Amino acid sequence: MSALLKRREFLLFLAILLLILLVRARFPSFGSPANLAAIFHDSAILIILALGQMAVILTRCVDLSVAANLALTGMATAMLNAALPGIPVGLLLLFAAGMGMALGAFNGILVWKLALPSIVVTLGTMTIYRGSIFLLSGGAWVNAHQMSPAFKAFPREVVLGLPVLSWIAIAAIAVFVLLIGRTALGRAFHAVGGDEHAAVYTGISVGRTRFWAFTINGGLAGLCGYLWVSRYAVAYTEVAQGFELDVIAACVIGGISIAGGMGTVAGALLGAFFLGAIKNALPVAGISPFWQMAISGAAILLAVAFNARAERRKGRIILKSAQSAAPVIQSSGAAS
Amino acid sequence: MAAEPLVAASAADAPFSVSAGPVLSLRGIVKSFPGVKALQGVELDLYPGQVTALIGENGAGKSTLVKLLTGVHQPDEGEIRVGGRVARFPTAAAAAAEGVTAIHQETVLFDELSVAENIFLGHAPLNRFGLIDWPRMRREAREILARIGADLDPDAPLKDLGIASKHLVAIARALSVEARVVIMDEPTAALSHKEIGELYELVERLKAQGKAILFISHKFDEIFRIADRYAVFRDGGMVGAGLMSEIDERRLVEMMVGRAMDSIFPVRTPQIGEEILSVSGYSHPTEFADVSFTLRRGEILGFYGLVGAGRSELMQALFGISRPSAGICRIAGEERSPRSPAEAVEAGLVYAPEDRGLQGAVRALPIFQNLTLPSLGRISRAGLLRKAEEFALTRHYAERLDLRAASLDQPLGLLSGGNQQKVVIGKWLATQPKIIILDEPTKGVDVGSKAAVHEFMAELAAEGLAVIMVSSEIPEILGMSDRVIVMREGRMVGEYPRAGLTPEILVRAAAGIGAGGAS
To answer: Is CATH 3.30.70.20 what the domain over B1-11+48-76+89-99+178-262 is classified as, yes or no?
Structure first.
């Protein structure tokens, strides 16, 4: 199956390549290394959030509150900066990540201890977090002139040819490659999403595993909260409204199975980059932003259809081995 | 059971005599899937009023045959005759229209619907406005339920019923379409002793009504108990068929495996060492009470009982899945009652559950990831897994267990049941446990793999591992155990050394004295 997954990601890679070449044929400036770096920079926040969301989706959950978490943390960080401009950016980063983690952990605790479905929990916390922004700020904006220069400059600072924001995304990718592929927690994500009962009987705590997925995701959302408000140099109640759907879309396009247990870092990365590439290509080609939505939507449907087809093919392989559908039979009666 | 008619007698008494022609015949059926011939030249006759047992190892083609008969697959060659006419089953509905219905092993029913709705789903009686005729549906459901002797309320939601009752609903559903042929695919797999007895009575009833029954089972005692005829499949072909009265168990097993099997169980000379596990007064609020026993190194301790006797629940409590309300568990002299599976593994006690599909392993994950899942800490350095060691560990246990797989990268779900079980056992051995609990280790496993699992169990004990084996199969209990504990209704009702133990003793203890119905 890993070969199958690889192929799915490879196809997505080809789709992105094709998209770039098509646009490039008309607009040669598109798709140059500098332009690709710009698209990556532009997609960095989506990529980071897609990685976090992937961890959650792998455990067969979903986090709808990421964008609200991002906005709340971003507002808190911006207000902190406005009130105490002397705090170094490093500390603000820690504050944002820590606050995001706390908000994510709250989701995780509810999913773990109350055993509530994650979609309901995060729908609730999404609303709470979004509402808290208003309570915190009184509906006021934090504008560029209230932010310290260092606060605004940090994500844009160029180090070794790339802005810091891109480097943070690259670091997140590297950490996730290790986390998902090479740690017991990453394996537990797959096991919990792949088969909850089997995970329990293997000594894995399903609730704790999910808790960590939500906490990690929250931490990334919080980090992105700072990155977002500093990048756009403004914080207000509706920041990143609806962005959680883009994040989930990136995961789905990247072949992360909503049913849990299946997905790769490369998939999440490509899914996010694909959305970023479309977003950047269409204005270049002079196509209305409303087409962007239609194309993103079509990409989601295509990805889901493709994944479903892959699932079916898996079934055919079972028959091919002609254990006479042995796996089905041998699961035997639901005893006890 | 009042009536226990012998095969020949019942056939003679039934309104449909043996001389009646077959109601369903298969001639020269061939079915291929890409790369594999699943069925090659199958011939099979089913007679009205008779039970034909379909026997074969997993992979012999039984399930493919069921799928052909129920319209899921179509044969590549050959013909299906119903009542002498050639019939085609392009869809499940077409098969049902010809009166062929199947009761699946995992009953396909809907928990949120009522009993009557489940029975008539897809062919509910309609009134003149084209809407569902509820009064008629309830009435007919009641009639069908009465016909099979099931005392169920047609309006009861299915989710409130037990497994056995759900089975009855599935059977009622099969009968609601005027079935001539009823296929039962391992119908007793999930039933308790008492429920199995009721199922046998039901089968007798269906026979008396002239239904032709195809009964798929792995259990020989049950085949000899209720079947009139047998058909043995091996490697996609039929290797023998005839009357049950003219065959014995030994010959059937030979036909199934294609070789003579003198002793299915390995011969062992147990080397029993020091005490490793001591359980005293283990109790649970609802499942079991006051269970005390000890276990020694190198010993295989059998737990026998009917389904629902609380054996699995006891083992799950020992493994830390549920908490006991009272009692002490000592492992290697230390008092430690595991509060989670992780703690149990830590203490050296592991549990291979009964239902591999639901509890034992993550089917979508590759073999090697399943095998190392509980040992990840050991193969990590600085929190990172070392792939080379992971593969070395997997390879080691795959070889030890004689695992049959194309590659260790393969998803576990693609393996046969026996090989899945090997991976589940292997993953626990990789944690180097002191005590291994095997819950129904050979359930749903074909005869060949069964022997391999038994062989392996004997090896483990010989190496000094303490083994607890929960089993509902008397031959397995008698063949493998050094000592047997019998449970009934959540309590220990007997503890016996292997020497001098007979099936009768076990059955009587498990069923409760007096009520003991030896099968």
So the answer is: no
